[in-house]
Design goal:
The complex is a heterodimer of chains A (about 130) and B (about 90). Chain A has helices spanning about 15-30, 50-60, 75-85, 100-115, 120-125, and strands at about 5-10, 35-40, 65-70, 95. With about 130 residues, chain A is an alpha/beta fold. Chain A has a four-stranded parallel sheet with strand order 2-1-3-4, sandwiched between helices. In chain A, α2 (about 50-60) packs across α3 (about 75-85) and α4 (about 100-115) packs antiparallel against α5. Chain B is α+β, with helices and mostly antiparallel strands and about 90 residues long. Chain B has a single domain (about 5-85), classed as HPr-like (Histidine-containing Protein, Chain: A, 2-Layer Sandwich), CATH 3.30.1340. Chain B has helices at about 20-30, 50-55, 75-85, and strands at about 5-10, 35-40, 45, 65-70. Chain B has a four-stranded antiparallel sheet with strand order 1-4-2-3, with helices on one face. In chain B, α1 (about 20-30) packs antiparallel against α3. Chain B is globular and about 35 Å long. The N and C termini of chain B lie far apart (about 40 Å). The chains are: A alpha/beta (about 130), B alpha+beta (about 90). Chains A and B meet through α1 and α4 of A and α1 and α2 of B.
């Protein structure tokens, strides 16, 4: 695992979905990629939380950037909020991918593990929607 | 420009499914050569370094896959990719 690959963050309303998607990434792509996930609201229910997303981004932070995969509407809003909360203008190196969460995470991680740029990682995941 | 090509039989019982597709793409990306794939007998080639396109091939066990590479390390790329397919992607099957 190296800091020079793009990090992957998976954000779902459900912790089980987020953890399951992260498990799939680790099983298929291996340890050569940095992946973090979060799901659920602070009360333990379904939902997303900007602070948790921020912590997940910090966990896999890389100077190469971080690609974020989200599920439904609120996840994207909170992910964008977390990106704005990043200090030192690092938000410019974090992108929410427009891709399905599970497939997108596997594809983005595969691309990231090859040492590709954040642009290439997001483009690969977004190719799923074309 | 060096070119190399090969045709390989998919023997993995599940075919070129998700995990093997990831392995093949990751290996392809380690080479400088441009690498193309196509199911034997079909017209269109796809980029072996595109995980979405490789998964999209949906090749079943028993089908043949054509590999073609162009670039300085093309012969090595084709040899290693072919070997990966022949080893059933290093999965215990």
């Amino acid at each position: 695992m190296t800091a020079d690959t793009v990090g992957i963050v998976i954000v779902s309303h459900s912790p089980k979905v987020a953890e399951g998607a992260a498990d799939m990434v680790r099983a298929m792509v291996g340890d050569g990629v940095r992946v973090a996930c979060c799901g659920g609201n602070p009360a333990g229910g379904l939902g997303t939380d900007a602070a948790r997303i921020l912590a997940a981004i910090e966990e896999v932070w890389s100077p190469q950037g971080v690609a974020v995969l989200v599920d439904l509407g609120g996840a994207e809003m909170n992910a964008e909020m977390a990106i704005e909360m990043l200090d030192e203008g690092r938000g410019a190196q974090v992108r929410v991918c427009n891709a399905p969460i599970v497939e997108g995470a596997v594809v983005a991680a595969t691309e990231a593990s090859a040492g590709s740029s954040l642009d290439a990682v997001c483009a690969a995941a977004e190719e799923l929607c074309q | 420009m060096t070119a190399a090509s090969a045709t390989v039989l998919i023997t993995h019982p599940t075919g070129l499914h998700a995990r093997p597709a990831v392995k093949l793409t990751k290996l392809a990306k380690t080479f400088e050569a441009a690498i193309r794939l196509r199911p034997d007998g079909q017209e269109g080639w796809i980029d072996a370094k595109s995980i979405v396109k490789v998964m999209g091939l949906k090749l079943r066990s028993g089908s043949r896959l054509e590999l073609a590479a162009e670039g300085v390390d093309a012969p090595d790329a084709v040899a290693q990719l072919r070997a990966l397919v022949e080893r059933n992607f290093d999965e215990n099957v």
